Amino acid sequence: MKYLLDSNIIIYHLNGEESATGFITANREHCAISRISYIEVLSFDFTPDEENAVRELLDGFFIIDTNREIANQSVKNRKNKKIKVPDNIIASSAQVYDLTLVTRNINDFDSLDVKILDIITEG
User: Which neighbouring-strand residues pair with 73?
Assistant: First the structure.
């Protein structure tokens, strides 16, 4: 794995955003998602058929579940920056597994020691 997709990248892809879809298509075999992203994305209001399609999409990624190491990294991050728990777990997952976090919300993760790729500005 090389990349951890933030929830917003998947949402942009589902909404037909070309940059998100292009990135996922070109890098799918190198992408993982956090279980948190799985939960966040499936929390949107989908029809049953849409939800099945989204589950199939999400299940196609390597999914990183939260563990003690990610929890401990989240505690360290929280001491450095006030950050929402889901964003913190996603960032911590990228840190622990040495992945580049692909996101459109780079400000959510500033001042954390995490590699970030904004597909809009960096293509």
Answer: none
Quick: pLDDT tens for 52-105.
999 999 999 999 999 999 999 999 999 999 999 999 999 999 999 999 999 999
> Is the domain 3-122 a CATH 3.40.50.1010 member?
yes
C-alpha 14/C-alpha 28 separation (Å) is 15
Burial 36-64 (b: 16+ CB within 10 A, else e): bbbebbeeeeeeeeeeeebeebbeebeeb
Q: Where are the domains of the chain?
A: 3-122
Please, what is the end-to-end C-alpha distance for the chain in angstroms? 19
The Cα 1–Cα 10 span in angstroms is 17
Under DSSP, the state recorded for 24 is H
DSSP, collapsed to helix, strand or coil, labels residue 31 as strand
Long-range residue pairs from 115-119, CB within 8 A, at least 24 positions apart, any chain = 117/3, 119/9, 119/19, 119/20, 119/23
